[in-house]
Amino acid sequence: MSATTSDVSDERFLRSSSPLQRLLTRPELGSLVGAIAVFCCFALAADSFLRASSLGTVLYASSTIGIMAVPVALLMIGGEFDLSAGVLVTSSALVSSMFSYRMTANVWVGVGVSLLVTLAVGAFNGIMLARTRLPSFIVTLGTFLMLTGMNLGFTKLISGTVSTRTIADMEGFTTARALFASTLTVGGTHIKVTVLWWLALVALGSWILLRTRAGNWIFAVGGNEQAARAVGVPVARTKTALYMGVALGAWICGQHLLFSYDVVQSGEGVGNELIYIIAAVIGGCLITGGHGSAVGSAVGALIFGMTSKGIVFAEWNPDWFTFFLGAMLLLATLLNTWVRRRAEASK
Amino acid sequence: MTRTDSRTALVELSGVSKHYGNVRALEGVSLEVHAGEITCVLGDNGAGKSTLIKIISGLHRHDGGTLALDGEETRLASPREALDRGIATVHQDLAVVALMPVWRNFFLGSEPRKGAGPFKRMDVDRMRRTTRAELLRMGIDLRDVDQPIGTLSGGERQCVAIARAVHFGAKVLVLDEPTAALGVKQSGVVLKYVTAARDQGLGVVLITHNPHHAYLVGDRFVLLKRGTMVGNHTRGEITLDELTSQMAGGDELDDLRHELQGDR
Ligand SMILES: Nc1ncnc2c1ncn2[C@@H]1O[C@H](COP(=O)(O)OP(=O)(O)OP(=O)(O)O)[C@@H](O)[C@H]1O
Ligand SMILES: [Mg+2]
């Protein structure tokens, strides 16, 4: 066996990568460069951007996207989309509010029921995908439309209007608000509790991806589903769990929405699913699956937060916001594609 | 053409057939795999070779005939079940996840873990070390097991897949055209590991287009043609020339020779 060592290994020297090359293949790299550029741009354009209070504002805007961007990124690494993620946030808030208002005296019951319902929607997406073998684009587009209709329909049926009734006077509201929508003061900066949720999810997402067996399966089902199935990876179970992860994120965001505004508008959330996907893609997730990171999605969300608030601080016309976002998306995707070509060079 | 063997075969197919809709991919195919032997399956493109091994590896269910493992008739429900029963397969088209690092690919589906409860995690150090060591045993010296497996050469990837199967204690190793895309030298490397696996007591199913490769290492030869079995021989019964001409369909080859020479 050892006789062949030399003739196989001599090719290796040409291919062994330098630390710089390895850094270049990190999924977060492109987004990190982008984030620094965006930061510098607004730091120069608006004096107020560097103030501590602005930091709190930017982080808050980033966190509401970032909480969803983490599970959406994991799902995308697993090779699938979820177009229902945006309206699911609203559904989750609506269920929580209306169940509490109608059925009980304590909002925590509604919060718990909402968790179950939201997770069930995630499981539905995953099981439909596995059973029908339709593309996730179609399956979740269906869920998206159905949820949009149900949000409006049920809210009108139960509340009589397009928004829910106030639940601020109910038992448990204060504690729930503390958990989902409070503001902490850290060194004079007001930080919303969602920022903590966001950080926790990024840490959890990274742990799962990098250190657990589930993470290995996520990369595998997204990178080459057939190969994964052939070595015994439970593909359907992995994907269903990923959809339920998105649902968990939607539940956290939904409860935040409810407990910070007290009432929920049933038409909200449409279009946000694309923003989550954009954050994940800017953060280095391959749209075709198999590559990406949770940290990247956080940087993507941060770019989103900095741009959306930075434009306000710089007193620019906010119409330009989507232009920036679009340009960023294209640049990030180009970089990621280039990286993948290198990785698959000899395929 | 059929023989009886005193020992029970690790895998025994008899009269197996498989249809894809109304495409008849296999009809009445029999094959035996014994410990420490290499069974070669030969045939042209579309002969049904991949279909045959997808039945052995649990990806497809057969429609007719029987599949027996260690003499016990079974139907494999999933690739997982086949793996658990000691059948490891290196597929022609779906062997590895190109974007994933070598060590993650090596252990995919059988990740060793440590820790307990919510802190249960993959034993990454051990996975890296084992991957390096196992590949080194096969003569592949990877400086970096973190590189995406897609950056390895075709032969190296095949060797990773074979090393993985051997490492996880497979009793039967199924290889679908491991040398198809390889140069002479790398084919040699792969064939060497195939015989090494055989010498360790594994039963090997080797699928190939190439009768020379087959005759170099094979103990039994099954010839397929458009889904039917046209030959089933042990090594003693057949010479390389006979094998080659049977595979090409001897008469057809003569016709071809005349045609080509006629053109000159
Ligand atoms: N999933 C499928 N659905 C329908 N027909 C199929 C399917 N898979 C294979 N076939 C058909 O079955 C026949 C045998 O295919 P198979 O892949 O087993 O051939 P093969 O001997 O492995 O060929 P090659 O040498 O090209 O790999 C072919 O005619 C093919 O078109
Ligand atoms: Mg084939």
From TrEMBL, chain A:
Principal localization reads: membrane
Q: Which GO terms describe its cellular component?
A: plasma membrane
Q: Where in the cell is it found?
A: Cell membrane
Give TM segment ranges.
Answer: 29-46, 58-77, 108-130, 136-158, 179-209, 275-308, 320-339
Keyword annotations for this protein, in alphabetical order, are:
Cell inner membrane, Cell membrane, Membrane, Sugar transport, Transmembrane, Transmembrane helix, Transport
What does this gene product do?
Answer: Part of the binding-protein-dependent transport system for D-xylose. Probably responsible for the translocation of the substrate across the membrane.
The protein's name is Xylose transport system permease protein XylH
Q: Which organism is it from?
A: Streptomyces caelestis
UniProtKB/TrEMBL annotation, chain B:
Q: Supply the CDD domains for this chain.
A: ABC_Carb_Monos_I
InterPro entries linked to this entry: AAA+_ATPase, ABC_carbohydrate_import_ATPase, ABC_transporter-like_ATP-bd, ABC_transporter-like_CS, P-loop_NTPase
Q: What is this protein called?
A: ABC transporter ATP-binding protein
Cite the ABC transporter domain residue spans from the record. 11-251
Question: What is the superkingdom listed in this entry's lineage?
Answer: Bacteria
Q: Which UniProt keywords apply?
A: ATP-binding, Nucleotide-binding
Per the UniProt record, one Pfam family is: ABC_tran
Organism field: Streptomyces caelestis
Could you tell me which PANTHER family the record lists for this protein? CARBOHYDRATE TRANSPORT ATP-BINDING PROTEIN MG119-RELATED, SUGAR ABC TRANSPORTER ATP-BINDING PROTEIN
Give the GO molecular function terms.
Answer: ATP binding; ATP hydrolysis activity
